[in-house]
Amino acid sequence: MTDTSRNARADALLDVVQEESHRRLKIFLGAAPGVGKTYAMLSAARELKRQGIDVVVGLVETHGRSETAALLEGLEVLPRLTLSYQGREFTEFDVDGALARKPDILLVDELAHRNVPGSRHERRWQDIAELLDAGIEVYTALNVQHLESLNDQVRRITGITVRETVPDAFLDRARDIVLVDLPPRELIGRLRQGKVYVPETAAAALDAFFSPTNLAALRELAVDTVAGHVDSDLREHMLARGGKMPVRRRVMAAIDGYAQSEYLVRVARRIAERRGAPWTVVFVDTGATLDETRRERIDTAMRLARRLGGDVTVLHGHAVADELLVHADREGVGQIILGRTRERLVARMLGRSLTQQLLRRGAHLELTIIATPAERVRSRKRLRLMPMYGRRDEYIFATVVTAIAIGLSFIADRYLSVANLALIFLTAVMAVAVRTRMTVAVYTATLCFLGYNFFFAPPRYTLVIANSDDVLAVTLFFAAALICSRLATRLASQVESLRAAHDYSHALLTLGQRLSASTDAGGIRDVGAAALARSLRCEVAMLARDMEHRLQIAANSSRTLSLTTQDLAAAEWCEQHTEP
C-alpha cells in the first residue's frame, strides 16, 4: 500500500468516526400505525434505564393503548408545553425543557408530527434536529408513508395523500434504523380488537387504509428503506477500511415542467439513495415561452429536490439532448432519468425524439425512462379497451383511412393513370383488413370502391361503371378485404390461444409450488382459494363443516369478505342438490 493510499484510507476512516460521533438519532420505522413502534422504543428505553443510562421521555403518544402506557411506569416524563391556538388549548413537546434537562437519551414520538402554529418549529423533526445539534441522543418513531420521497407511491397504493412528511435527508442523520414489523393479518386483527384505534375509527380504517394489499405494499417500502440505509452504512465503512466498492456516479433527472416533474424528482432520490450516489435535477431552458402553470411546476419540483437533498441546475440551449449529454459528461453523471412523455410523431419517425437521441449518442450512460403514473393509467385504459375495440371506433378508423386514400389519390392523379390509383385504394383496404374484423374490412372495400369509382373512374363524379376494368377493381377490393381480414383474425386467435395457454401453465405451476409448501388442510385451502381468486378475478370463500356439522368459512381470498345467513343458506342448498 502506498503512502498516498494509506493517508486517503486514514482520512476516510477519520471521517467515518467523526460522522458516527455526530449521529445520535435512532428511528423505529414501521409500515403502518399499530405495528408496535412506540412499544419497541419504550421497551428499549426501559432496558437502557436498567443499565443505569439517563433516559427521559420527552413525548410519547400511547393512543389509549394500555400495554404501551404501562411501559411508561418508572420512566421520567417531561411536562408538555401548553399553547393556545384559535381559542383552544393544545399540548406540544417542550424543546426548551428538554435542552435544560439534557439527558443521555431522550424519547420523542411521532417524528412527522406538524406542530401547533406558534411553536418554535413547524415540524417535530426540526425540534429533534435542534436536540441532536445540542448533543442529545434521540429515539423516535416514524411510519414509512411519511417519507417525502415516497409520497407519490403511498398515494398510488392507498389513495390517500399524506400531508405530514419528513425529508429523506433527515434519515441520513440516523445512526440506527430499527424495522418494527408485523404481518398484515396480525395488524388487522389488532385493529379489530381495538388495539390501534377506537372501534368507530377502526371500522373506517379497515375499509380504506388497512387493507391487506395496502399493508403488504407499505411493508415492502419499509423493508426497502431499511435495506437502503444498511447498504449506505456498509459502503461507508468498506471505503473507510480500504474495501473495494463499485464506483457510483452521479444520478441526473431531467424534468420538463409537465405534470409528472415532482414524481421524477422523488424517483431520482430513491434511485440515488439505493446507489449511494449524489443526484441532480436539471431543466433545459430552450428559450421557448413557458406558461404560468409550467413555470410553477418547475419551481415546485426544484424546491422539492433541494428539500430531499439534491442539487438543481437550469441549463440553457436550443437542443435538449445536446445540453443533457454535455452536462452529464462535465459532471460525471452515470445515469439519466427521464419521464415517458408525449413525443411528436414526425420526430419519432425521423429518429429525432429526445429518447432516441440519448439512446443513440449516450451509449456510455445508463438511460432510465420512467413510466409516470398518468402514463401507466393511460396504458391500462388502452389495454382494457383493446378487447372491446371493434365497434364504432373501428368504423371511424376505416372511414379515416379511406379519406386519406382519396386525398392521396387526388395528389397522385396528376402523375399516375387511373388504373394505378386503384393500388392506393387497395393498400387502404389491406391496411384496415389486417387490423380489424371482416365486416369492417368489407365496409372499407365498399367505401374505397365508391370513392375510386365516383372521383377517378370515367365518367367522373358518377357511380356508373363504364369500364370492365372497374369490375375487376371492385372484385380485387373485396377479395383483398376478405383474405386479409381472415388471416388477421386467425393470427389474433392464435395469439390469444397462446396467451391463454401460457396463463394456464403459469397458474398450474404456481399452484403446484404453493401446494408443495403447504403442510396442513388449512394451508391447502388457503392456496386453493387464492388460486381460484386469481383465475376467476373475484373474491373466493371455501366452506367446510365444523364439528357441529355447520358450514363455516374455511379459507378466504380476502380478509374483508364475509358471508350472510342467506349466503350460507344458498351454499347449503347447492350442496344438497349438487347444483350451482
Can you describe this structure?
It is a single chain. With 580 residues, the chain is of the alpha/beta class. The protein folds into four domains: 3-240, P-loop containing nucleotide triphosphate hydrolases (Rossmann fold, 3-Layer(aba) Sandwich); 250-379, HUPs (Rossmann fold), CATH 3.40.50; 389-492, no CATH class; 518-577, no CATH class. Helix content is 55%, strand content 14%. It contains 22 helices and 15 strands. It has a six-stranded parallel beta sheet, with helices on both faces. Helix 17 (392-412) packs parallel to helix 19 and helix 18 packs antiparallel against helix 19. It is flat and about 110 Å long. It starts with a helix and ends with a helix.
Short characterization:
With 580 residues, this protein is an alpha/beta fold. The chain is 55% helix and 14% strand.
Lay out the secondary structure.
Elements: H1 3-22, E1 25-30, H2 37-50, E2 55-59, H3 66-70, E3 76-77, E4 81-85, E5 88-92, H4 95-101, E6 105-108, H5 124-133, E7 137-143, H6 151-158, H7 168-171, E8 174-180, H8 184-192, H9 199-207, H10 212-240, E9 250-255, H11 261-275, E10 279-285, H12 292-307, E11 311-316, H13 320-331, E12 333-339, H14 345-349, H15 354-361, E13 366-370, H16 373-385, H17 392-412, H18 418-433, H19 438-455, H20 468-516, H21 521-536, E14 541-545, E15 551-556, H22 565-577
Parallel strand pairs: 1-7, 1-8, 2-3, 2-6, 6-7, 9-10, 9-12, 10-11, 12-13
Antiparallel strand pairs: 4-5, 14-15
Helix pairs in contact: 1-10, 11-12, 17-18, 17-19, 18-19, 18-20, 19-20, 20-21
